Amino acid sequence: MTVSGPDLKAVLWDMDGTLLDSEKLWDVAMHELAAELGGVMSESTRHAIIGASGPDALAMIFGALELDPTPAALADAAAWMNGRVTELFSLGIPWRPGAREALRTVRASGLRTALVTNTERVLAEQALDTLGREHFDVTVCGDEVPRGKPEPDPYLRAAELLGIAPEHCLAVEDSPTGSAAAEAAGCAVLVVPCEVAVPVGPRRVHRESLEGIGESGFAAAWRTVHA
After folding, report:
1. What is the pLDDT of residue 24?
2. Catalytic site residue from 7, 14, 16, 21
3. In what order do the strands lie in the sheet with 112-116?
4. pLDDT band at 184 (very low <50, low <70, confident <90, very high)
5. In angstroms, rounded to a whole number, what is the distance separating the alpha carbons of residues 123 and 128?
6. What positions belong to coiled-coil segments (predicted)?
7. Contact 167/186 with Cβ under 8 angstroms?
8. CA atoms of 137 and 69, how far apart (whole Å)
9. Residue 143 falls in the annotated catalytic set
């Protein structure tokens, strides 16, 4: 069986928590940022932030800590966060189970591919040193679209750059935020949860891990949504 089939034409990959086990690094930075701001990051706030864009994440942190989200304060927090995550990424970013092999499988199949992340370009470029730029035809980052996930903008932009309608795309996601964005864009969604549970949905197929997915697994996920 071939992965591509007549209708599945592209696989759109989320990054943090899907391909790379980088949410744990973001977790370190988020907790440290909360301490820098004079507070403590609660578990509920951290879970709510997973998959969010930078501006949305900072807004949630400021709200949870009851801080005044002035433009200057948000800018300072964003600069601190980017600097700390850069440091953590430089120490090495681990892969999610099966992700490296899954990337290679899809690339070898002839399907078009995109990296679609809420992470800003400067950090995504650092992560691409681990992922390998050769695995993606296009990359879309959170600071390159009007609205980040959970809005559909990143996925719509990726489909536009590929020249492929969203209904012919399968997004691979780990979070409720990312899954909602892909679904709103019109993509089928292969959900591989990482840090938090992801609700079921009519356009979502759940899988515990990317390990052993093989070529047929991507086609099967797409067909299940479009059955």
Report:
1. 86
2. 14
3. 138-140, 112-116, 10-13, 169-173, 188-191, 204-206
4. very high
5. 9
6. none
7. yes
8. 37
9. no
**Could you give phi then psi for residue 208, rounded to 5 degrees?**
-70, -35
- Closest to 176 (Cα-Cα) out of 12, 54, 51, 14: 51
What is the pLDDT, as a whole number, of residue 30? 87
The phi-psi region of residue 103 (left if phi > 0; otherwise alpha if psi is between -120 and 50; otherwise beta) is: alpha
Angle at 81 between CA 76 and CA 84, to 5 degrees: 125
Structure tokens at 164: 């492929």
The two three-digit tokens of residue 122, written as one number: 């400067």
Q: Mind spelling out the 3-state secondary structure of the chain?
A: CCCCCCCCCEEEECCECCCECCHHHHHHHHHHHHHHCCCCCCHHHHHHHCCCCHHHHHHHHHHHCCCCCCHHHHHHHHHHHHHHHHHHHHCCCCECCCHHHHHHHHHHHCCEEEEECCCCHHHHHHHHHHHCHHHCCEEECHHHCCCCCCCCHHHHHHHHHHCCCHHHEEEEECCHHHHHHHHHHCCEEEECCCCCCCCCCCCEEECCCCCCCHHHHHHHHHHHHHC
- Mean pLDDT, the chain, rounded, equals 91
Place of tokens 């959170």: 142
| Alpha carbon 92 to chain centroid, angstroms | 18
Beta strand 188-191 pairing with 10-13: unpaired
Q: Check whether 68 has a pLDDT greater than 60.
A: yes
Amino acid identity for residue 204 in this structure: R
Q: What is the pTM of this model?
A: 0.87
